[in-house]
Design a protein that fits this description.
Family (chains A, B): Belongs to the diphthine synthase family.
Organism (chains A, B): Mytilinidion resinicola
GO molecular function (chains A, B): diphthine methyl ester synthase activity
Oligomer: homodimer
Strand order of the largest sheet of chain A: 3-2-4-1-5
Distance between the termini of chain A: 48 Å
Structural class of chain A: alpha/beta
Catalytic activity (chains A, B): 2-[(3S)-amino-3-carboxypropyl]-L-histidyl-[translation elongation factor 2] + 4 S-adenosyl-L-methionine = diphthine methyl ester-[translation elongation factor 2] + 4 S-adenosyl-L-homocysteine + 3 H(+)
Largest interface: A-B, 59 and 59 residues
Pathway (chains A, B): Protein modification; peptidyl-diphthamide biosynthesis
CATH topology of the largest domain in chain A: Methyltransferase, Cobalt-precorrin-4 Transmethylase, Domain 2
CATH superfamily of the largest domain in chain A: Tetrapyrrole methylase, C-terminal domain
Number of domains of chain A: 2
Largest sheet of chain A: 5 strands, parallel
C-alpha cells in the first residue's frame, strides 16, 4: 500500500495518530520537500518517528516515482506531505502512477493552509479560488494571478495567495556548468507579495482590481506557537515584517461579515485606518 | 487557555499528536456536536482519550459559552471540533467571547472536508466558494445556494456543496408542548442533494446554471477506510447510493484539467457517458 500521509503545518506533532502509526510500520518513509516545508528539520522528524526519512525532491517524485512505488504492492510505503496530501497536483500524479501499477493507495488527511487560514477569522465560505505568487525575476513577472484575483473580486470573494518557496535551486551558472551546488532556500514574505501585487496593478494591468488601500491579511507560521497575523492595507503590508517563514496573504473581498472585522481589527497595523477603510469599502457590501 | 482542537474527519485516531496531548491534560473536554460528526461514538473517543467528554450542542455553544470558558484563564479547556476548528462561523464567536474575557486561545488545525475533497482528484485551486444545502421542507425551499453556484460557474470553478445534518432536532409538536424529545439524527445524502439542486434549477430558477447532464462527484466518509467516491451527471447522482454518512457533493466547473478526468473516470457511474459528457462540455474549456 502507498500511504500519502499529511503532516499538517508546523512541527512533528501535527501528524495524526493514525498517520504516525502508519509511518512507524512502513517499510520506507519519504518526505516530499519541495511544495511546502514544515518548520522543523528532517532530523527532528526522524527522532520522533524513530525511523529514517528519505527526502523526495521534485525530480524524484516527478521522474523516479517508480522508485518510490517499488514493492508497494506487497509492503507499505509512506509518502509524507506537508499540509494535506492533496494540496498539490503532483501527488495526484503519484496516485495515478500507483493505480497503473496496481499499487493500492490510501490518503491520511491533515490540516492545510487552505482551511487553517480560518485562523484569521475570515469565513472560509467567503473564499474564491486560491492563487500562487512566484518570485518575480528581472525579465519574468507572470501576472496570471491577477486575472484569477479579478474573478474572485468580481463576485466579492476573498483570495488566498500562496507564496513561492525555492528549495534546492541551482544558479544559472551552476546549472550551466553541471555543478550540483544549490542556493540557500528562499521563502517569499508577505511584504514581497504585497509589493509584487501592487507592481502588477499599478504598472502593468491598471484595471483597478485592487489598490494600495485594499485590505489584506498576512499570516506567518499558521498552527505554530509563534503564529502571527497582520491586517492592513496592501500598502501597509509592503512594510510588514512577520518574521520567519512560511507566509501567506489574503486579499479581502468586499463581501464581508461583521464578525470578520471584529476578529481582524485586533491584528491591524493601524486600527483607525483599518476601521475607516473597512467602513468605506467593505461594510455592508454584497 | 481555551484550545480549539480539530479532530479531523473519520475516527478517534484522526486527532493530531499535539491535539491528543492537549486533550489528555485539559481540565475539561467539550465536543462540538452539531455542525459535523465523527463516524464514531462519543464513548469511543472517551476510551481513547481516557477522559470524559462533554457534548456541547448548539444551545450550549451559542448561549452558554461562559460555562465552557469558566476558569479557562487559569486552567486549560479543550473544545473539540470535527474537521478543522475554523470550519464553522460559530467557533469564531467563541474565540471572540474568550478574547473579551481575557482568556487566551489557541487553535490546533486538522483536516477539513474543504481540503480533503481533494481525494476526488479535483484540483483544490479550481474551487470557488463553498455552499451549504439544507433539507427542504414543504414550504421552505431556500435557493440562495443557487446564486452562489451561478457565480462559481460564471468563472468556471468547481463548487463544494456541504450537506445538512440534523441532530437533536425537536418535532414541531414536541417543541410546542415543551417536550425535550428529539428526533433521530438525519444526514442528507448525495442523491437528495442532487435532486434538490435539480428541483431548484428546473422548477424555480430556470437560468441554466447547471442541468441534469452537468457532471458532479459525490463522496462519503472521506478519510475513512470505506471512503466512497461516485462521479456522474447530476441526473445519475439522484440515484446514487453511497451508504452511511457523511456525504458531500462537488459540482464541476468547466475549467478542468485532464488529470482530473483521468483520476475521476475510475469512479464514474457510467464510464462511457462520463467520457462523452466530459468531451462535450468540459474538455479544454476555460
Amino acid at each position: 500500500m502507498l500511504y500519502l500521509v499529511g503532516l499538517g503545518l508546523a512541527d512533528e506533532k501535527d501528524i495524526t495518530v493514525k498517520g504516525l502509526e502508519i509511518v512507524k510500520k512502513a517499510e520506507r518513509v519519504y518526505l516530499e520537500a519541495y511544495t511546502a516545508i514544515l518548520l522543523v528539520e528532517k532530523e527532528q522528524l526522524e527522532a520522533f518517528y524513530g525511523r529514517p526519512v528519505i527526502i523526495a525532491d521534485r525530480e524524484m517524485v516527478e521522474s523516479s516515482s517508480d522508485e518510490i512505488l517499488a514493492g508497494a504492492d506487497k509492503t507499505d510505503v509512506a509518502f509524507l506531505v506537508v499540509g494535506d496530501p492533496f494540496g498539490a497536483t503532483t501527488h495526484t500524479d503519484l496516485v495515478l502512477r500507483a493505480r497503473s501499477l496496481s499499487v493500492p493507495t490510501r490518503s491520511i488527511p491533515n490540516a492545510s493552509i487552505l482551511t487553517s487560514i480560518g485562523t484569521t477569522g475570515l469565513q472560509l465560505y467567503n473564499f474564491g479560488q486560491t492563487v500562487s505568487m512566484v518570485f518575480f525575476l528581472e525579465t519574468w513577472r507572470p501576472a496570471s494571478f491577477y486575472d484569477r484575483i479579478a474573478e474572485n473580486v468580481s463576485i466579492g470573494l476573498h483570495t488566498l495567495v500562496l507564496l513561492d518557496i525555492k528549495v534546492k535551486e541551482q544558479s544559472l551558472e551552476n546549472m550551466a556548468r553541471g555543478r550540483l551546488i544549490y542556493e540557500p532556500p528562499r521563502f517569499m514574505t508577505v511584504a514581497q507579495c504585497a509589493a509584487q501585487m501592487l507592481e502588477i496593478e499599478e504598472e502593468v494591468k491598471k484595471e483597478g482590481v485592487y489598490t494600495r488601500e485594499s485590505l489584506a491579511v498576512g499570516v506567518a507560521r499558521v498552527g505554530a506557537v509563534d503564529e502571527k497575523i497582520v491586517a492592513g492595507t496592501l500598502g501597509e503590508l509592503c512594510d510588514a515584517d512577520l518574521g520567519r517563514p512560511l507566509h501567506s496573504l489574503v486579499l479581502l473581498g468586499r463581501r464581508t461579515h461583521d464578525l470578520e472585522r471584529e476578529f481582524l481589527e485586533e491584528f491591524a497595523v493601524d486600527k483607525e485606518k483599518f476601521a475607516s477603510v473597512w467602513k468605506r469599502d467593505y461594510e455592508g457590501k454584497q
